[in-house]
Amino acid sequence: MAVFKVLIVILSIGYSFGAPVKITDEKLRFNIGYKWPCETTKNIYKNHNLFHSKNIIATRSVIYNDDAIIAMPRFKSGVPVTLGKISLRNNGESPVINAYPCWSLQEEGNCAALQNVVDIFLDPQGILWVLDTGVVNTLEKPVRKCPPKVVAFNLSTDKLIKVVDLSRLTTDSSRLQYVIADYGQNGHVYIYVTDAESGAILVHDVTTGQSHSVGLPQDILATTSKRDVLTPVLIRRPDGSTCLIFTYLSSSHIYVVSTKSLQTGESIKFHDLGQKKAKIVVLGTDNGTAMFFRYEGKSDIYRWDTSLRFVEEHFDRVSTGDDILFATHVTPDYRTERMRALESNFPDFIQGTVGCGVEHTLNTL
After folding, report:
1. Pick from 164, 231, 263, 300: CA 20 to 30 A from residue 194's CA?
2. Closest CA to 183 of 131, 132, 125
3. pTM for this model (two decimals)
């Protein structure tokens, strides 16, 4: 908790804190409901079969002031908005989703807009980094609309400030899944993107515009039965250095690599942190040394202090679930000094049994 409080001070430097508002303390429930720009737009989407509420799910979230920015990947057709915002103000009603930053940036087929947002990352300066794969309907019949990219928004102004084209680092078979932004000791801004199919971590120096791909060693790739989900988390050590802890969902082990070595591309050493007793779904960090995860098919959430060994005795259960809603992301809420878990009935969504729409909660841990 001490580390988390220190980080609140550090990370709030770039954040705009206004007058206190009443924030939902425990569990914010919401379904997919949009704030449409006008009635005409709403009718166009509904009458032309472009809006299917049961095909929409929020999988990633970050908290900024009294709002949550959420990623809604275009896994299936009928998803009008792939990046949205909801209010955390507790008014007793289910919040509606606003397109973020606006509706014009949600247009499919417009490569200046967002096509399929699969991950978002909030950096210490209040910059939101957004991973857009450019491929839509990935669980139905995948269609490439545009090249893959990472875009950055300044959350204090809602302005688009950077676009990073990832085309030259990827192939047609690439599956980009997660993005992390980091500030190097040289003052440069770096982003890391995982490519699960290629077994690589893509590294881009935003300051210089230079990029390179770091392939995972064969001994790491050999520990996974399939290249399914490659999840990294950024760990901030007490000495100020950072590292990436990562694992494939189907891998039997979990690993760490220094971000400094990823940035330079030299003397890169991957270290095995230990063997997993079962498949784990990595959920996020507290922006310090703690990593949150759950076991596949289970809804209980655990916290692991990564300064300790990766063994079960160091896993603290911080949330007991009901095996109906499953967390897909855990993120800090600096206004309340608590962690929040974005939960949904994700298995029902995959199986197509959600009825009218997916249930979501932003649950305080």
Report:
1. 300
2. 125
3. 0.92
